[in-house]
Amino acid sequence: MIKTLKNLLKQDKERYTVPRKVQDVIPVRRIWKDGIFQVGGRFSKTYQFTDINYLVASREDKEQMFLAYSELLNSLDSGATTKITINNRRLNRANFEQSILMPMRGDACDVYRREYNQMLLDKATGANGIWGYALKTAANAFPDVYSNGYLAGPASGQGENPYALLTQTGYREIFYNTAQSLFVLTQDLGDWVTKGLTVSIKGSFDAQNENNLGRTKTSPQWLATGRNEAGELEFNQTQIGEENLSYKQTNKGYRSVYFEAVANWARTFGKHDLSAMFLFQQSQKNYVGESANNSEKALPYRHQGIAGRITYNYDNRYFVEGNFGYNGSENFSPNHRFGFFPSIAVGYVVSNEKFFAPIRDVVSMVKLKASYGLVGNDQIGGDRRFIYNETINTSGGSYQFGTGNTTYTGLRLGNWANDSVGWEKAYKLNVGAEVSLFGKLRIQADYFRERREGIFLQAASIPRFSGLSTSPWINAGKMKNHGVDASLEYHQTIGKVQLTVRGNFTYAHNTILDNDQPRWAEPYLNKIGQSNWQEYGLVAAGLFSSQEEIDAWPTQAWGEVHPGDIKYLDLNGDGKVDTYDCKPIGYPNVPEITYGFGASVKWKGFDFSVFFQGVGNVNFFTNNTYTQPFTASSISLSNVFTDLIGKYWSESNPDPNARYPRLTTSPNPNNSQKSTFWMVNGRYMRLKNAEIGYSLPKQVVNKLRIDGLRIYVSGMNLLTFSDFKLWDPDLQTGAANYPNNRVYNIGVSLIF
Length: 752
Fold this sequence. Notes:
By secondary structure, the chain is mainly β. The protein has a domain at 525-751. It has a 17-stranded antiparallel sheet. Strands 1-2-3 form a three-stranded antiparallel sheet, with no helix packed on it. Strand 15 and strand 16 form a beta hairpin. The longest helix has 16 residues, at 59-74. It is globular, with a radius of gyration of 32 Å. The two termini are 38 Å apart. The relative contact order is 0.08.
């Protein structure tokens, strides 16, 4: 084992040679068409994973993402070195609002819920804050810096100076210390036990420490209030600020241990291929510092399980594979800790049959495949650990006791104990086919269906008169997902022109089967049968044209209504319009359709490629302070979209179908309701990438004593085609979030 580790470390070292020319300091020695490149004595390849929004993800969610990546990394050869890069782009405000913020309940506490939600939004938008204030703040509110050098700043509660946020608040440095170790011991038992049998043991110890050094300050700011008799500006200091940078140091990190033992067996008997695998694994991870900010998170995270697989292949025509996993999770009680998750998959290569030979020149390959299995998920409690235990709330109210009227803080039950909490289970079915035509066109299509049961949620069917202070969490949710996934790839050579066309299409729809909610009196209010991301809102019927029309219309529950305000349909016919008249409207705010297509062309030394991506079946809402200007608490934060010009209702333009309702200088609850009036189609298609390049001929680069030279021009996010024009439709309701960057590159690629 020690010898194996020494060999790995020896292989990982690169011989250093003093560079004698410029080419010697360029690490990349060779690049192949499949993306593999050589750096010194090593060979490397980069893989791009799906975009993940880390900004609002909990630590447990981030851990689960890394564990999923680790399963891939553990399958690689022991001598492979891997690196995961995360590009944190922006926050999807629509998803954040739906999943994190407190919902309004129509009572007197809504004012506090709005205040709390705004605090969360201000904190969550983080890097988007500067961009948001730049968009929100009217151009004439105040300058960046006054003529005397004073840094401009609005009054308290009136917003922020984007220039000050960008340049006058300090900086932060983050240092990472990482230690990684891996050992692998493999033994071939073919001569001792049976042919084709190998066993291996793999172990690793990793540690990481992060030191965060912050140097920040609040800059002094002033607001001009007028001029004196001499014409000089008069100021009020709105922010005292600090002259020196404050210092704060924090640290966090983790230590992880992983162990794996696996046995593999593979044999061939004529036309029969058999293989089997059995694996045992366990892991432990400890967080330290800020990562372990409470007693539960400071405890070790442990997982243990076994897995097995057996495969059979007859004559490269018939394929069968069976898998199972028996996994244990610390999140559940001893009675429900382990779960058994089997699966089976079959495949049939029709084109390898003898009867297929006459048409093989036309249809070169046909493959049918299907799989069915059970998958388990133990990360169901969010930030909670040991979710089968109760929790105690130490802020359960206060009481006075004794002759001195001493005040004590009480305790109350937080979350109920539930010994029956167990794995969330998903029954997955996949049926697909692959077809190749003329050896040039390959088409792949899959239909998938999933039924999830045991979704962890808070019981909603328990009435308030039961006396429970909090509703228990139970495995009661059920959901169905289904859709199709298809792709095609076409290759064609026409003379000296090489053409490649690729495309993909995905449609996915989910349906809530059970969420433990009581049935609403109005059927259209029930969420059963609707998508998990389905939006609910009022149905708008245009704008009121006159007071007479208002008097004849059902009463609307959001204050006094005037001509130019939005009118809504009374769906239940009770003579008033309120929250009971909200129904499912439009598509969900998560796209049900995603697609992409592109092409590349090569001719002599020239190459050109483009790639488009798009989404469909998605809606979002545009009711915000930019489409309803002058209604914010601060006038300086009430910037106005030019789209409003000539498109809002007014006495001079009493259009009942105007794009915007009447303008007000105070909040208008009636016009700010979520409704079809503000709903827009969120579909778009974007020219994601485009590149054109030229590679010098071989005889030229040989004279230059290099292997290759390519000059190219590329761009990213060049064009967006959408019915919605106010802001990037990919941001949805997050108009103040930082948009997708349009990037241009001019470069030279040298290969030595």
